[in-house]
Amino acid sequence: MSKLVALSISIALLGGIWAYLALGPLAGMVLVWAGFIAWGCYFHTGGDNAALQKTIAGMIYGAVLAGIALFLVGLNPIGLPGATGPAVYIAVTVFFLVIVAGFNLLSVVPANVYGYAATAGYALESKNMAVTAMNMTNPVLIVALSIVIGAVFGMLSGKLSGMLSK
Questions:
Q1: Angle at 117 between CA 115 and CA 123, to 5 degrees
Q2: Please, what is the Cα angle at 86 between 113 and 66, to 5 degrees?
Q3: Are the C-beta atoms of 143 and 115 separated by less than 8 Å?
Q4: pTM of the complete model beyond 0.70
Q5: Cα 86 vs. chain centroid, distance in angstroms?
Q6: How many domains does the chain divide into?
Q7: Could you read off the pLDDT of 55-97 as tens digits, one per residue?
Q8: Are 146 and 31 in contact (CB under 8 A)?
Q9: First CA to last CA across the chain, in angstroms?
Q10: Range of the structural domain that residue 96 is part of
């Protein structure tokens, strides 16, 4: 079997399992789409053990920074008016999103951005701003768990693809 067919089958099979888990037993705790973002990030980062580490670390780092930005926007600690506050808090956190690229685990800037964007997008769209909650209502925790499981499913699909193509 060709590598492309093997990869297609492995991703289809495991993608269906992931969707079932995210929409069934893990519903409310994970986001199917955030897991697929991590899955894709794993492959574009190299599809190996280092990619798994960098995907998880970078995307969770981005999710945490988005949580900080959302917290600051809600709190507006320096009292900036109108759209100025969110713009400043986002600018500051995005600076830290990129400046860390000198650290190996956070060197894949797109991974950092994916985690930030997924968290901010989910929180804003769902109007779930519980970024300080220490339970599964926290959008940072929901996205982080989705990232870990999605990246692991990416790794598993690569391994299954390798077995199928032999």
A1: 100
A2: 30
A3: yes
A4: yes
A5: 22
A6: 1
A7: 999 999 999 999 999 999 999 999 999 999 999 999 999 999 9
A8: yes
A9: 7
A10: 3-164
Secondary structure of the chain as H, E, C letters: CCHHHHHHHHHHHHHHHHHHHHHCCCECCECHHHHHHHHHHHHHCCCCHHHHHHHHHHHHHHHHHHHHHHHHHHHCCCCCCCCHHHHHHHHHHHHHHHHHHHCHHHCCHHHHHHHHHHHHHHHHHHCCCCCCCCCCCCHHHHHHHHHHHHHHHHHHHHHHHHHHCC
Q: What is the pLDDT of residues 20-30, one digit of tens each?
A: 999 999 999 99
Q: Return d(Cα 34, Cα 65) in angstroms, integer.
A: 16
Close Cβ partners of 82 (under 8 Å, ≥ 6 residues apart): none
